[in-house]
Amino acid sequence: MSVPAAYLAVILIWSTTPLAIQWSGDGPGFLFGVAARMVVGLSILLAGMRLLRVDFPWDRASRRVYLVGGVPLYLAMTSVYWSAQYIPSGWISVIFGLSPIFIGVLAGRWLGEDSFSGGRGIGMLMGLAGLVLVFAESTEVSWSAALGVLGVVTSAVVHSISAVGLKRLQPQMPAVSITAGSLVVATPLFVAACVIGPGWPEHIPQRALLSIAYLAVMGSAIGFPLYFFVLKKLSAGRVALIALVTPITALVLGSVANGETVSVRVWVGAALIVCGLACYEYWGRWGESKPVLDKDDPAL
Prior knowledge:
The chain is mostly helical. The chain has eleven helices and no strands. The protein has helices spanning 3-24, 30-52, 60-83, 89-96, 99-110, 119-141, 143-169, 175-196, 206-233, 236-258, 264-286. Helix 3 packs across helix 8 and helix 4 (89-96) packs antiparallel against helix 10 (236-258).
């Protein structure tokens, strides 16, 4: 697969995931939606790894990596699926746009990286200002919506903790193996929560069923490997552009496909978050002199 095609596919998947999450829980309940997604996604991943003979280590160090990836995955996904019941799907992508900033702050504390100098501090403040606007809008909708916003923020923070934790461990194994191992840890937790909670639904609407299948195949089994493929082929700066695009495309998709109303305040909040992320990621590079095109760039 070409790098540009993979890059566009990741943008498409990330833009559609929030709406699919919301639809997957509409009828069977959010716990069943996420549990079914993980069971199917893990099954496809393990079958693909076996077919392609991808290494799946199970030594002590590997199990530690899977725990660091799997437990936060359960917490983060449960939180965002629960929140999707109460807020427009586009808001999820907007709030998750802050994840690179959260990761930077945590990396500065745990990995000793420089996370606060220059434009990064300005970017953080702009991102937080955007989040405040989205939260203020949610309180006017309902307190359930406000709790939904807090739930997505919690999910983004937990996801960021996991990302920094994995970076700190520096696992020497294929990215697909890390994904599969994390799902091996998380999937039983999702299934247990579904069984202990409301249990299995008597009827699954077609839209929910198709959304679960889409998330399992595209969001989990294909989306993660594509993302890691892009991350391997392109610079971190180009990959970070994905987080600048998806909040806007997700808001538009939610409005067109799901009839979600996007207020001026939310658009301004989204713009602040996107601009804040741009400042955080690119402030130090804007002053550098670089050629417009690089003939060795794999994206060309």
